Q: What sequence folds into this?
């Protein structure tokens, strides 16, 4: 037993916290992005050059594939550094994750291909944890006398009202019938089909009979509270009497045996479920477009344009009132609130699904 404990202590002391690239060493002299950029600015000023900055325009091209972070699934990550003037024998490429240098880890755990004017790193089965910040930065220095050029791996984005078609179902190719229904209904309703497909993928994995521990049912996982708002708009839709009063195992049993089905319970009907999910999202949108709530958002966050989709998704997951309290308390960091831990993961995953559903082909490097 003592030997086992000693082995465990040795193992845990050799490696630090995990990054998506592998275990990070616990060393006091590990460089941080802040220190490297600061030192580089000092060096470039001493040598009479202008300091390099992140996203500086440069003939050097740093590319990622997928082109934006994938937060809902694993992928093969490729990072390409291309220099049209050729790769100098003394070039330097550095990688940072959440501010800490991970160059050695990536060199160890990736396949590296060196060409005349390009270096490509490939990492199979790469997975990002959506709850984390996931700030990934690549720095390239052509030679010891050159400034470092930086490129940040951007997060996916998704806008609720964009009218885009679904171009790539990824691992849901067998759900094309449902995806077509989502696309048709969403475009009629004037919302982004990829947004709704991402919501369905996260909520139910396209299972029309899904039931959660909170008694949310169907493709869009409409709860009993959300159902009240939907049925005010569509009172003609069929509902199974007192279904929400049964415990979850009984609800699942009734659905499994067919006693509750798409004919007598609207949430099990794919068309109604999708329409109902959109209807509830629009109810949330109406809430956030009230003057008093617009004032809250603009006061604590700023303009709503870039954040409204995040606010809607977080509200769909955790309720608009909880989201509002977090905005008032945390301001621009509202999604980092302890009360929205589940919503934070939810928002990032749905946006990731949405963005990559809209990509016809992930760019190849």
A:
């Amino acid at each position: 037993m003592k030997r086992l404990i000693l082995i465990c202590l040795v193992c845990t002391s050799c490696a630090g916290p995990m990054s998506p690239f592998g275990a990070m060493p616990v060393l006091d002299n590990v460089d941080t992005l802040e220190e490297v950029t600061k030192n580089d600015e000092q060096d470039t000023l001493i040598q009479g050059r202008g300091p390099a900055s992140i996203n500086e325009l440069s003939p050097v091209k740093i590319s990622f594939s997928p082109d934006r972070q994938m937060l809902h699934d694993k992928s093969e990550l490729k990072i390409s550094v291309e220099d049209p003037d050729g790769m100098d024998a003394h070039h330097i490429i550095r990688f940072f994750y959440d501010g800490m240098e991970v160059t050695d880890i990536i060199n160890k755990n990736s396949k590296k291909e060196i060409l005349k004017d390009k270096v490509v790193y490939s990492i199979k089965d790469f997975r990002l944890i959506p709850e984390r910040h996931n700030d990934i930065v690549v720095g390239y220095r052509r030679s010891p006398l050159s400034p470092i050029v930086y490129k940040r791996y951007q997060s996916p984005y998704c806008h609720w009202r964009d009218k885009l078609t679904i171009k790539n179902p990824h691992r849901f190719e067998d759900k094309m019938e449902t995806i077509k229904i989502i696309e048709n209904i969403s475009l009629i309703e004037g919302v982004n089909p990829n947004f709704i497909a991402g919501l369905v993928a996260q909520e139910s994995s396209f299972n029309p009979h899904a039931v959660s521990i909170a008694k949310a049912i169907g493709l869009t996982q409409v709860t009993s509270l959300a159902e009240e708002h939907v049925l005010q708009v569509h009172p003609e839709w069929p509902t199974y009497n007192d279904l929400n009063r049964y415990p979850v195992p009984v609800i699942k049993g009734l659905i499994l045996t067919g006693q509750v089905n798409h004919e007598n319970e609207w949430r099990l009907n794919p068309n109604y479920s999708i329409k109902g999910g959109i209807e509830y999202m629009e109810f949330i949108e109406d809430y956030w477009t009230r003057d008093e709530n617009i004032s809250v958002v603009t006061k604590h966050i700023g303009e709503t344009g870039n954040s409204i989709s995040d606010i809607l998704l977080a509200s769909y997951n955790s309720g608009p009132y909880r989201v509002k309290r977090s905005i008032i308390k945390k301001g621009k960091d509202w999604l980092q609130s302890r009360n929205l831990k589940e919503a934070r993961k939810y928002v990032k995953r749905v946006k990731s699904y949405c963005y990559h559903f809209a990509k016809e082909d992930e760019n190849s490097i």
Observations:
- Strands lie at 18-19, 22-23, 61-65, 75-82, 92-97, 100-101, 111-114, 118-126, 136-141, 148-152.
- The longest strand covers residues 118-126.
- The two ends are 50 Å apart (CA to CA).
- The CA atoms of residues 66 and 362 lie 5 Å apart.
